[in-house]
Structures are given as structure tokens and as C-alpha cells.
Amino acid sequence: MNKNLFITATDTDVGKTLIASSLIKGIKSETTLGYKPIAAGCELKNGKLINQDALSLLAAGDIKLDYDLVNPYALKPPIAPHIAAEQVNLQIQHNELTAGLVKIHQQAEALVVVEGAGGWMLPTSMNTFLSDWVSEHQMPVILVVGMKLGCLNHALLTAQAIQQSNAKLVGWIANCVDDNMLQQQANIDSLHKLMPVPCFGVVPYLAEGQSAAEYLDFEQIEKMLINC
């Protein structure tokens, strides 16, 4: 049966791609593919805008897909996507995001791990948000918490926003992005007590290119997927 799993985060650059690609590689119970519907900060290669995060998801997938399937909205400037789209007279359409997801599911019966852009309340226009689309499709949501100063507030506010959007927050993953964070374990312990959903893993500070898979609780994640 086709399923989706959405990965969001407390901020930009706190490890959504690391976690999403590790989930794609680590989930063994079903064919798993990646989808990065909106990406900013793309580079022009051979006349085509390409995003490194989307390439990572593409490489992790159980089936090799065309790049355009994985990343339908590729925007060059590393800025808020709706602003980048406006600069090239483009509107981000939620029905196009859905059409892209359908095309991926047409390739195989699969779990599609959908990586968001930025945080939960990412505008796709001046009156729509990517979170609207996620809520509409009732995707289970995993929140990546970037462990750095301020993360408790960021995590709790984001969890609250997800739940108030009538989306299905199912778990969180701590990603230790600041190797010098003071009282890191105390902050993680606080999140265990304060977050309304279970923790699916604590990823230590990793060198570039390392996988987070060994630090994720795939038994718990796969049980969650069965129940969603």
C-alpha cells in the first residue's frame, strides 16, 4: 500500500536531509523512495537546476528515479522558496506537489519520505503554507530537532503548530548539530519529558558524509508506519 512520511524540522540547516536519507536507506519492510517537492539554493548543471538535498534522497531510494520526479520545484537563490519563485514569475501550486507525489507512487508501491523545506510554517505564497498541503494529505510527520541553544522553545512551538494544523505528529529525532552545545544531554532529557510524542533517535554530531541510520530506532519507526 502506498504511504507517505513527512520530515520537517525546527529550523533550516539542522539535518532534514541527513535524517530523511537515513530513513529511506534504513526502512527495510517496504520499498522506500524520497521526494523533495520544493528546493531552493539549486545549482545550474548542464542547463538544469539541481539541488544537492534532492540528489541525496534520489541516491538513497530503492528505485532510481528521474531527478525531475524527485524535485519538481527547483529554485536557484538560497532564499525563502515563495520569494525565489516570485523572482522568476512562478507560483508554487499545491496541486503540482500532489501530482508529483502521485507520479512517484506510480513508479512502485512504496513508502515515500517527503522532505520539507525550512521549517513547518514554510510559505508557498502569501496565503498558503507547505504545512497546509501536508495536513490535507494527513501525512504522519517526524520533527527533526536541531540541538542548539534555543532548541527547546523551537521544538515545543513547532510541535504545537503541527498539532494545531490537524497534522499527525508521530515522533521527533534529536540531531546534534552543535558539537559545543552546553548541557546538551540535559536539553535532550528535557525534550523527552516535554515533547508530546516519542523520540525515534538521538543523532550525535557527525562528520560530513556519515549516515545517521545506526542512531535511529527503526523498530519503533516501522511499528508507527504500520499503525498510520
TrEMBL record:
Enzyme class per UniProt: ligase
Predominant subcellular localization, coarse grouping: cytoplasm
Keywords: ATP-binding, Biotin biosynthesis, Cytoplasm, Ligase, Magnesium, Metal-binding, Nucleotide-binding
A family per Pfam: AAA_26
Listed cofactors: Mg(2+)
Residues the record marks as active site: K36
EC number: 6.3.3.3
Keyword Lipoprotein: no
GO molecular function ontology, one term from the record: magnesium ion binding
Coiled-coil portions: none
GO CC terms: cytosol
Positions annotated to bind ATP: 13-18, 53, 115-118, 175-176, 204-206
Pathway where this protein functions: Cofactor biosynthesis; biotin biosynthesis; biotin from 7,8-diaminononanoate: step 1/2
Subcellular location: Cytoplasm
Flavoprotein is among the record's keywords: no
Residues reported in the UniProt entry to bind Mg(2+): T17, D53, E115
Chemical reaction(s) catalysed: (7R,8S)-7,8-diammoniononanoate + CO2 + ATP = (4R,5S)-dethiobiotin + ADP + phosphate + 3 H(+)
GO BP: biotin biosynthetic process
Description of how the protein assembles with itself and partners: Homodimer.
NCBIfam families: bioD
Job of this protein: Catalyzes a mechanistically unusual reaction, the ATP-dependent insertion of CO2 between the N7 and N8 nitrogen atoms of 7,8-diaminopelargonic acid (DAPA, also called 7,8-diammoniononanoate) to form a ureido ring.
Similarity comment: family membership: Belongs to the dethiobiotin synthetase family.
Database matches in HAMAP family: BioD
Protein name listed in UniProt: ATP-dependent dethiobiotin synthetase BioD
Upper classification of the organism: Bacteria, Pseudomonadati, Pseudomonadota, Gammaproteobacteria, Alteromonadales
